[in-house]
Amino acid sequence: MSEIEPDELISVFKALGHPTRLAILAWLKDPASFPPQDRPAEEVGVCLKHIQARANVSQSTASQFMATLHRAGLVHCTRIGQWSHYSRNEDAIARLGALIAAEL
């Protein structure tokens, strides 16, 4: 993100512009706050079904929220069987913070 194009930056800010997506990104900062999974969330990310439950939205809405965050580069997605697990992209978030501090 250090050499981020204006369109990419707009995508990031749009992704952060929805209160639920912003909340999800904050929740993912502490993956242990979600219910236990077969594999530790700290290793594979948080299963979409747990994000959906906490956000109190439908599965399709949760999927759309996570796809938006993923396209913006703010989260990583790991597929395990039929399940999608999400974790924060800490490097991208840190670069975004540095870019904002330096440029805006």
TrEMBL record:
Keyword Transcription: yes
Annotated ranges, domain HTH arsR-type: 1-104
Protein name per the record: ArsR/SmtB family transcription factor
Family matches, as InterPro entries: ArsR-like_HTH, HTH_ArsR_DNA-bd_dom, HTH_MetalResp_TranReg, WH-like_DNA-bd_sf, WH_DNA-bd_sf
Key words, A-Z: DNA-binding, Transcription, Transcription regulation
Keyword Repeat: no
